């Protein structure tokens, strides 16, 4: 991971019931802006705060993000990490390199009453907006580290969302993205 581009989003303050929806939104936002293949967009909503965001219309991505966000809501971590990797096959080996890593800090607040939860809607919505704007700002400002598109067909791209990274150990939730693209998609 010597050439990894790190990004750390501002730590957010969330109650246990807010963790899942917040993480789904931010993970999907980052993936949507960094996936290196053509992907149809899809709108998602967080009904509890009436907030819409765009994500990739991809069943595998949705499954993995949902799994990690659900795990985080059951055992909230102090941070969640998202990594983008590229693998290059050589004659006798395969090199896997992380080219970008995002860290989302979470400060867990105590559970609140239903009345207080309604009062937190605007605060959570504001934290989401700031985090999304930060993602877009980072993505637009930092592009020189992206893997070259010229050799895209020779590489495997994967997204990794480690579990329990805050405790010093991890079991990675890695999935590969199909990179079999036609010339007109490159």
Give the gist of this structure.
The protein has 186 residues and is an alpha+beta fold. 34% of the residues lie in helices and 34% in strands. β6 (155-163) and β7 (171-177) form a beta hairpin.
Q: What is the topological layout?
A:
Elements: E1 5-14, H1 16-34, E2 41-46, E3 51-56, H2 59-74, E4 79-89, E5 94-108, H3 114-141, E6 155-163, E7 171-177
Parallel strand pairs: 1-5
Antiparallel strand pairs: 2-3, 4-5, 4-6, 6-7
Overview of this protein structure:
This protein is an alpha+beta fold. 34% of the residues lie in helices and 34% in strands. It is built from three helices and seven strands. The protein has helices spanning 16-34, 59-74, 114-141; strands at residues 5-14, 41-46, 51-56, 79-89, 94-108, 155-163, 171-177. The chain has a five-stranded mixed sheet, covered by helices on one side. It has a two-stranded antiparallel sheet with strand order 2-3. A hairpin with a 7-residue loop joins strand 6 (155-163) and strand 7. The longest helix is centred in the C-terminal third of the chain and has 28 residues, at 114-141. The radius of gyration is 17 Å and the shape is elongated. The two termini are 26 Å apart. Mean pLDDT is 83; it is low at 165-186.
Q: So how many helices?
A: 3
* Element-by-element helix/strand order: EHEEHEEHEE
Total count of strands: 7
- Average residue-wise pLDDT: 83
Structural class: alpha+beta
Strand order of the largest sheet: 1-5-4-6-7
Binned, the helix content reads 25-40%
- Describe the global form: elongated
**Any low-confidence stretches, pLDDT <50, length ≥5?**
165-186
- Percent of sequence in beta strands: 25-35%
Tell me about the largest β-sheet.
Answer: 5 strands, mixed
